[in-house]
Amino acid sequence: MIGLILVLTPGMASKDLFVYADYGNTLGVHGANPYFISPHQAAPRDILANIDVGWSNATSAYGPVWNLVIAFFALLFRDHPLPYFYAYRLLGLACHLVSIGLIGSILRSAGRSERTITLGIFLFAWNPLTLFENALGAHNDIFMGMLLLLGFAWCTYAEKKDFTRLKNYGPALIFFTLATMIKFTSLPVVIFFFMLLAARTLNTAHVPLKKMQWMQALKNVALAVTIFIVLSLLFYAPFWIGHSLKDIAHSFAAPPSSTGSENSLMRVAVNWLKDTRSMVSSDSLITRVATILQSRNLWNKIDTLVMATCVLVGAWHLWHQPTLRTFTAVSLGTLSCIILVTPWFYSWYIIWLLALAPVILAFPPLKRTNKALLAFCIAFSITGFATYIDLSFLPVKYFELAIRYTLTVAPPILLFMLVYLRAKSQNIRVED
């Protein structure tokens, strides 16, 4: 009921659904390639290109699966804005409901009690941020989250069979791959899946190093990687045919999300330099620090470093404990770190975390790291709303974004540290 109310709410907190409609119209109606031709170039007189101010002159930042989905809607609604307004919201609500069912299925399949199943479902289903961003905002992040949950749900099925056989793990790999074809941020989950498959084949937790089946592990991982690459190319190929490698590489760097900044420490630095240019000396320490932090190139390197570090840490844990619990924890932890350091952040990105957080409850007993991750995700779902706060009444304008950014990221980090440090070293059960 709450979801339907939000679907029918006339107000909007984001115009993303019209961005989707504009790109879908570019591909589905005008037959233009959204990775190389902007909506304004394809149809400058369409009403969607005029509504979609800010993104109509940019090429698509979304994966090919999402571009195909929005092209289908465009074939139905063409350039009429109103149908999109409800269609994307209904799609967001539908994905929200399917995700609820998947969370319940995962927890039930893992043999958790009704109390734990209810808790896991409520963590996602009744979370104000998920309802707000899925049913009202209609963001494609819930579509990605649903695909991730489908992958984890199939993993729990494969766990009861022989996980290392293609017929058992194959569907999970396909769902994870499709998630990366919505947004590339799902890629760490795929990488950890390959690691889990290798570790399970080698049986690293019980078999001595010299007796491990290295050749079989290599074959399994090579096959899984091949499936991922082939499936990805099948979706991308129609968009890439006729374009050079240089143009293809440029298409990934062209969207504003690949060059700009929003709701991040980088954006705080950019705004500080812009707003205090005539008031603060260029030689002051804070100005020098802000000058360094405003570089997107720097943040790209930080992103790469954080990603590499998380992958290495995750690999170490999966080697020693090749279980679905470890796979879930390292995936959730890595996505959390990516969100914290990304220079381009919006509150609906937290949906990635909220979709996976309840899955941790499927694998008790909870260790303090997992408990701290749950606390972090719940806190983040509350502070994420801080990005919407209007602080224009403040007398010092250049502190507005800094305050919003601090209110958004500081409490979840502090709560994670508090829970981690105060939790007992022994395992903490969540069962009745």
From TrEMBL:
Keywords: Membrane, Transmembrane, Transmembrane helix. It holds the Pfam family MptA_B_family. It comes from the Bacteria. The chain crosses the membrane at residues 61-78, 90-110, 142-160, 172-199, 220-241, 349-366, 373-396, 402-421. This is Glycosyltransferase RgtA/B/C/D-like domain-containing protein. It comes from Dictyobacter formicarum.
